[in-house]
Amino acid sequence: MRYALALVVLLCLNAFSLPLNTSKDIIVVFKNQVNIKSFLYHNNYKSKEQKTLEVYEATQLMAQKSQKSIISYLNEHDYQFRSFHIVNAIKIKDADNDLIHYLNQLDEIDYIQEDNVIQLEEFREEETNSNYRNIEWGVARVNAPEVWAMGYEGQNVVIAGQDTGYDWTHPAIQSKYRGWNNGNADHNYNWHDAIHEILSGSTEDNPCGLDAVAPCDDHAHGTHTMGTMLGKTDTDQIGVAPQSKWIACRNMERGNGRPSTYIECFEWFLAPTDLNGNNADPSKAPHVINNSWACTLGEGCNPDNYQTMQIVIDNLKAAGIMVVASAGNSGSACGTVNNPAAIYENSFSVGATNILDSLSGFSSRGPVLVDGSQRMKPNVSAPGQAVRSCVLNGNYSTFSGTSMAGPHVAGVVALMISANPLLSGQVEQIESILEQTAVPMNHADDNCGNTSGITIPNNIYGYGRIDALAAVQSSLTFNVNIEDNDYIQVMPNPSSGLFQLNMPFVNTNQNFEIRVWSIDGKLVETSSRNASGTYFQIDLSCEESGVYIYDIYQGDRHYKGKLLKL
Question: Which entry of 163, 167, 193, 467 is annotated as an active-site residue?
């Protein structure tokens, strides 16, 4: 039995058609997508702000170029639609056969998928109890209190969640809301509601309404997960990182969502907007996003359509934003980590442990078989059984599921970054530290895939149960020099083609390598130059107008910057 939320994402529809006189909500996915592998390669050790801005700009530019003609067609024929850029796609409401036929003829379209309504599977509520309990067992088990004693409680770190919504006035989480300031609330850039219509089939009004302008939870699951990440009152210590701040997006209406609502939330996290959906600001993106949902094969997710959500996850990691995903509750058989978003290489998947520090029977196990990758999952495990946290109306309840394990990891990520801010945006390094410092755990009686249950890592616990203290201690030793371009002068910039760079730092006895990338990740120039002087030129006269990124390597030094071609 699974207790995590269920998400149906990505029902692939090739040469899709409808019965006569019917219509469907669809998502149209374009062939052209940002080459995110190049971003993951060439933006290592850039600041989080730089990474997020570059990915935002690249995905925006790709979408603008690809979608222009189709958006014009949709406007001309009065279709309702929403353009996405975090994955190059358009959600279209009430698409009929005429539109489907038109889209199926276009070479630029990769595939079309239905934007179905999805009903979540209920999580298990173990008990309801409003009595005082001090530090919850899961928080203590991962050694978070020892990290607090060092002075690190998640300060200056922003955690995000997309879920059923959030009861932001709950005493355990209200003061940690980024939009709360000394009794005043500002929900701009801190809250987004992706629920624009009734999806549950209910004839009753949603208790939160639609397009809610303030955080609201119409189900309780989201509030519970946020409490585990950072919740705290004078009498209840339920959260791992109590000094971190949170922002959020509602992606389900009374437990019912659509692929488009999940994508919309992810896109909003990349560059939060004001309440009107305007003035996107990548600098306000969170450091880590918790995702306590899963999409099963039985509900429509299959290898033919995994790519859409994978693109979203890849783009977020390249943007310096860590994606934590619950492994799923389909255990205890092997090969049951089989649903997005837990299956992906660039999501950080979490299994669930119990108070005895062993894997919960419901926790899914690897390897990932559904895409043929044989990928080892989960990455790590964390407390997920009988986890007490906050719910609606000031109450507390105890739930079980990998939905409860993921928030522990997101909280530990906040502790790590607060201890060493240089880790901000360095997702690969954060993931590696979490894995290498986890308490090794194995299962001598079980072998999953080609990996023995007694080896570390394995397909049962991953690298083991997370340890916040060991992770923070390791984090304190991490050091990296973020690129500083103050030493490089570019004249003119913008330019119609020729850019002259002055590099007073250059070692005239050593050659340097130059690479120039388009903002959508295409390598347009690579060359090795003789460092005979401090000036050199980059010629983009034959390239299209737009933003370009240059990399300069000399020895162990690496500099980056932007060029604007008119």
Answer: 163
